[in-house]
Design brief:
Thaumatin_CS; Thaumatin; disulfide bond; globular; single chain; 225 residues; Osmotin/thaumatin-like_sf; five-stranded mixed sheet; 6 helices; signal; alpha+beta
């Protein structure tokens, strides 16, 4: 009787684990850029990706505030320590925290209200690599893309090596960062919105930039689609 009782927590844990795995979303990340990028994901870590290479990560239901992005012009030693020109995450190959601006972001939350996933591309932290974030399942047809020549056309005030910074990281003002939750588009945010209308250009951009797919959808993120 005692030994049977002891197995119950193990069986319960196994059931929960299998249930979570069965409903986890997969993200197929692909580098189509004609140059090497160092993909990053929180949760997920990071890795070097040459042109044409892929990397798959997964996220369990309940995962929120998650991000996938590309880093450029990186140098890492054998221990995975180094630095990237754009998107650097504390000098680590396998990211444990968010990257530094500028970086084009794929953001998501899995298994949220009414069994929906929330997905978006954001330029609030600027832009470094063209991106597509889309469904990889037949139950959702959502495709989000941001492929304009933002780096080449970047306003002088936002230009940095390898990217185009967001106005909030540059100016750090309420007008651009919207810490109070009460703000409007600016000329700088409109620069991003005009070129990538489906992507976040400032923090209150939800109506035109936040999309849903049913929980259970799998996804793909393509750098330079």
């Amino acid at each position: 009787m005692m030994s049977s009782f002891k197995t119950l927590p193990t069986l319960s844990f196994l059931f929960v684990t299998l249930f979570s795995l069965a409903h986890a979303a997969t993200f197929d990340i692909r580098n189509n850029c004609p140059y090497t990028v160092w993909a990053a994901a929180v949760p997920g870590g990071g890795r070097r990706m040459n042109r044409g290479e892929t990397w798959q990560i997964s996220a369990a239901p309940g995962t929120t505030q998650a991000r996938i992005w590309a880093r450029t012009n990186c140098q890492f030693d054998a221990s995975g320590n180094g630095k990237c020109e754009t998107g650097d995450c504390g000098g680590l190959l396998e990211c444990k925290g968010y990257g530094s601006a500028p970086n084009t972001l794929a953001e998501y939350a899995i298994g949220q209200f009414a069994n929906q996933d929330f997905i978006d591309i954001s330029n609030i932290d600027g832009f470094n690599v063209p991106m597509e974030f889309s469904s990889n399942s037949p139950g959702c047809t959502r495709v989000i893309r941001c492929t304009a020549d933002i780096v080449g056309q970047c306003p002088n005030e936002l230009k940095v090596p390898g990217g185009c910074n967001g106005p909030c990281p540059v100016f750090k003002t309420e007008e651009h960062c919207c810490n109070s939750g009460n703000c409007s588009p600016t000329n700088f945010s409109r620069f991003f919105k005009e070129r990538c209308p489906d992507a976040y250009s400032y923090p209150k951009d939800d109506p035109t930039s936040l999309f849903t797919c049913p929980t259970g959808t799998n996804y793909k993120v393509i750098f330079c689609p």
